[in-house]
Amino acid sequence: MRYFRLLVLGNGISAYGSYLNMVALNVFVYDATGSALAAGLFMTVRLATNVVSGWVSGRLVSVHDRKRLMVGADLCQALALLSLLLAPDGMRVGLLYALAVITGGCSTLSQVSLRSSIPEIVGAEHRVRANGLLVTGRSLAMIAGFASSGLVVAKLGYSAAFALDAATFLVSATVLFLLPVRTKAATTGTGSADSSDAARWTARMLLGTAPVLMAMIAVRAVDGLGSSSHNVALPIYSSGLDPDHPATFISQFWATWAIGNIVAQQVIGRVTKKSGRTPGERAFALGACVMSAGFIVVFCGLPTVPAVIAALIAGAADGFTEIVYVSRLQTAPDEQRGRLFGLSASAENTGFGLGMLVSGALLEAFSPLQVVAAFHGLAIALCLALLLVLLRRGGTRDPGVEDKTVDRDASTVTEGRG
């Protein structure tokens, strides 16, 4: 785990650059073009790239060295930002959409590569703790990125913001390159055969041998819808609470959410270490219900203290479900894990992107509470349905049994082709 802590630090720095990048670039597009349509198109291109790159990333991660892919993804983002920084003012607007494609694709590739690599880097028995550290680092990076982006742009300008973005990716790439970690299990046989086996195994797994995993991925996609709804509704709701200081509640919300994420990481790490068991599918479904309910309560017009408590609970449940979900997918064999996380990334980004469009349109006619309750209510309904199925099947199985089940399914498919 000693090397992994350095990896978490590098990943957190890279994540900070991504969140700073997200705000600075969106504001720059609007300032440069004066068009809300152009700003919306930029976000659409990036989100669409995130969706498509999930499928591509899954294939790349399955057949190539993941450490090199992560280093390459960070370097590509750094070079793209430096190109924008050095380009003449008249060319910057045209480069923005190419930048949206590069940053969207590389961020997804990096995420899929890292999630797929965790069991190989730290060992399967430490994956829950490792996932928790990554969640904590990313939560802190998100708060720092969103909080500092306005100040950096206002005080130093867009060029400084782009240079700082590029520097964070260069630091992350350097840390990854220097760390002596193995990100991929030793393989046997030809790469092309392994790639073909992985593709067919994933399809069969989702369609037949592991319907619960398919349901969990569907829940994450619907969670993306809910997440987009509260992201879009939050500025509107905050402005209604305090028109003179709309950023106050937003800052309180995200800071409290991040604290909840950190608390979740600490709790699940200690529980897992003490019990020797990893929370499974039923814990995931319950956690997702609590998370969505917490986000709905935040928008109910409560006084500040109860609203902050609800945000804390939502943040803790959000962190908990992500750790459990990622850890569950990581029980898949290494040769199939990349495609599984690629599919998951596409599903999550599709839900989030679709939710951004639909919730934005609905907020023109409905209140923030109505929109958030509708989207998160859908997630709760799906989670309750999943929980009912799990209870009828006898609840969550022992994690060790789950690991063996996934391995056996993979072996069955492989033998069938032989």
UniProtKB/TrEMBL annotation:
GO MF term set: transmembrane transporter activity
Region spans: Disordered: 399-418
Keyword annotations: Cell membrane, Membrane, Transmembrane, Transmembrane helix
Compartments in which it is found: Cell membrane
Domain Major facilitator superfamily (MFS) profile residue range list: 3-397
A GO cellular component annotation in the UniProt record: plasma membrane
Membrane topology: Multi-pass membrane protein
Superkingdom to which the source organism belongs: Bacteria
Predominant location category: membrane
PANTHER family: INTEGRAL MEMBRANE EFFLUX PROTEIN-RELATED, STAPHYLOFERRIN A TRANSPORTER
Protein name in UniProt: MFS transporter
Source organism of this protein record: Streptomyces chartreusis
Lineage of origin: Bacteria, Bacillati, Actinomycetota, Actinomycetes, Kitasatosporales
